[in-house]
Amino acid sequence: MADSAREGILQRDKETYAIVPKIPMGMLTPQILEKIASVAKKYNIPALKITSAQRIALVGIKKEDVENVWEDLGMEVGYPVGACLHYVQSCPGTEVCRLGQRDSLHMAQKLDELLSQMNIPAKTKVGVSGCPLNCGEGFVRDIGLFGKKETGWTVIIGGNSGRNTRIGDVLAEDLSEEETIDLINRFAQFYIANAKGRERLYRFVPRIGIEEIKKELGLVHS
Predict the structure, then answer these.
(1) Can you list the domains of the chain with their CATH numbers?
(2) Model-level pTM?
């Protein structure tokens, strides 16, 4: 998966390519920005685009330059292809936002580490928010979270923001960080075991039913 993405995404002109380095949770440093700018100048890359997944796409690269660009950037591929975790987006949370109630960046990093190691059946996107305002868009992601200072995390599953728009279902509320990670791990394993081929969560969740999923995960008693 990573190899095909590393080769670049062919653009509309059928001649140039775009690449998308990984920028976990959209967090940048001056050094990363300087590196991207330096590489863009060196290879005369005409466009840099901030993506909806909180990454920066370098667009308009000549085919013969693609691998050299990657080497100079020294960054991981951030545009996974096919059935896997595609991204974990996050609001700033308590790191900097005055409205933040929970550390969304820390939680997002934990989920990235957990889910990127799994053989997930289909493209999966995750959104994490540090307060109920949901700037991390968890209700329209395959897996979503938002936090409340006093009560903990709410876990949402089965959302989608594409053509088949769906508001996700609340799986559980008022969880600690440890409980949240454990639940998402168990839910992901359930998904892996029961999904049809390349079945996105916005189809899987209504097919199985949110109450049945809760029962299977021990959240309610039958």
Answers:
(1) 2-73 (3.30.70), 85-216 (3.30.413.10)
(2) 0.91
